[in-house]
Fold this sequence. Notes:
This protein is 36% helix and 16% strand. It has ten helices and 13 strands. Strand 5, helix 5 (151-169) and strand 6 form a beta-alpha-beta unit.
Amino acid sequence: MQKMTSFRPVTLVAGGAGFIGSHLCETLLARGHRVICLDSFVSGRRENVQPFENHPSFTLIEACVTRPVAVPGPLDQVYNLACAASPPQYQADPVHTMRTNVVGCGNLLELARIKGARFVQASTSEVYGDPLAHPQTEDYWGNVNCTGPRACYDEGKRAAETLCFDYRRAGLGDVRVARIFNTYGPQMRADDGRIVSNLICQALQERPMTLYGDGTQTRSFCYVSDLVAGLIALMDLPVAPDGAVNLGNPGEFSILELAGLIREMVPGSAKPVFCPLPQDDPRRRQPDIERARQLLHWQPRVPLRDGLRATIDWFAAHLETPEPVGAARDMRP
Ligand code: UDP
């Protein structure tokens, strides 16, 4: 049972030092939660939690979810965001990625079961693979190559969803699953190899923008504050929804369009260069967010241009050298 609003929930954020996790920790602290951030620092960064590391309601635990997780005292909520999420990073150690997704989710579900905590699993649009249905509704079962280089993440997240719903069906927990679509904003790693961070860093450093394939593939980009609001709304919903819930911004842009927008916003950006398309790269991706609209009364508010402005300004202040840092290089394995 969730407590009254005056109650200050104790909330574990696994992966809390990562890009989305650190924004979530900050928002939860501002809402009066006592936050336990658990991170292995494989892809999460201490700098992300430094601004609130000394907050009296914040605790940082360095641990990997692939090992059983124990936290002292009561626990009301668990958010599982523990896994590298950019293709170059999750493909760098695919066995660990698979274990993090499946074993890690299992360990956190057990913790939530023991503590009687509500559980939100950060799943992904990658469960739809290279989708044959467009836009993607939660009812679509996906088109994933289970032996390809993305499978450690896609199939890992799919198996984690299975575990979540098995726990629920067995009455072992109050479990909710969010399918998160491409998210961007301040505190992305410059070196994570994703499209928004790569293009912005390349533009700021006046290096050619790397476009994979012909750039006609599409993605839908959600600003991080919108996404965090969606995750919290899902956690706070009094009754868990029957199935997973898409969280993302339905505005669909080709990679060429995104590059054009960033070039327009960063004076002196260099021209794009075209590079080979990574294997199994999804052609199109756009969330259908009707379920989130209805259930959570949630929809994204930040237009792409505004979110990019904030992200560009953040990178401009945080990229230490005008020289190409290894950071935004093409990191495909
Ligand atoms: N991409 C690109 N240039 C880059 C990085 C990515 O053209 O420097 C493409 C990538 O091939 C994909 C899209 O941008 O089609 C989004 O890639 P990202 O790695 O951000 O996330 P994904 O949605 O593929 O997980």
